Amino acid sequence: MSGPLLADRTAVIYGGGGAIGGAVARVFAREGARVFIAGRTQAKLDAVARDLAAAGGEVETAQVDVLDQQAVQEHADAVAATAGGIDVALNAVSVPHDQGTLLADLSLEEFMRPIDGFLRTLFITSKAVARHMGRERPGVILTLSEPGSKLAVGGILGHSVSAAGKEAFSRVLAAELAPGNIRVVCIRPHAVVDAPAAGSYTGDLFAPMAAAGGQSVQEFLEGGLAQGTLLKRLPALRDVAETAAFLASDRAGAVTGTVANLSAGALVD
């Protein structure tokens, strides 16, 4: 039987206290990685850390504002100094934003909020960790996107442009970092069905749309969005986390500069 996927790897997860970040941290730890989770809310980080420690995982937390470039750089430097380098990094930072408002009623500020927020954090975190990756040990940077990057529907202008930007950023960064033995892979899940129950802001995001149809958020996800996929279901947190662990491992060593489609068939690439 083969060993853990991420044995002897050091992984940093920004947004590690969130629903997706926490799920990935748990699987990374299970697969043998030494996990460093960073985010804005210490209580959420501590909750994830308790789960990892209870399962025998090795984890450290840090309260870091991912929009503060100097703070993120200093954190990455400290992780690398402690662990001897960084092997894997995931940006799972969430930026609350508007969905459902059409151009006529959409403010410039709301349009730009996800574009500036998501791409700014992605630039800051990628730059901070890349300096400590690669060369003799392969490095992996994982990013997260959404199906909005490919959908032509109204009311998601800022969301769609930010998602497309994250995917473009990942492709170009993969080309830049490949000579240094660093892979970059974007993961594109659909709305994650159990994320609202795990504390994700997506519950608030979909609440107005669910209410308009007289549904709960869970009913809207399972009976509405899910029916637009080939599999008639939405991805779960475990789907995203297990995929992230595989992509971060040597078993996906030839995968870079691409998007892993976890939309359950909502999008067919």
What does this structure look like?
The chain has about 270 residues and is α/β, with parallel strands linked by helices. The chain has a single domain (about 10-195, about 235-260), classed as 3-Layer(aba) Sandwich (Rossmann fold). The chain is about 40% helix and about 15% strand. The chain is built from eight helices and seven strands, in the order βαβαβαβαβαβαααβ. It has helices spanning about 20-30, 40-55, 70-85, 110-130, 155-175, 200-210, 215-225, 235-250, and strands spanning about 10-15, 35-40, 60-65, 90, 140-145, 180-190, 260. Strands 3-2-1-4-5-6-7 form a seven-stranded parallel β-sheet, sandwiched between helices. Helix 4 links the parallel strand 4 and strand 5 (about 140-145). Helix 1 packs parallel to helix 2 and helix 4 runs parallel beside helix 5 (about 155-175). The longest helix is centred in the middle third of the chain and has 23 residues, at about 110-130. The mean pLDDT is about 90.
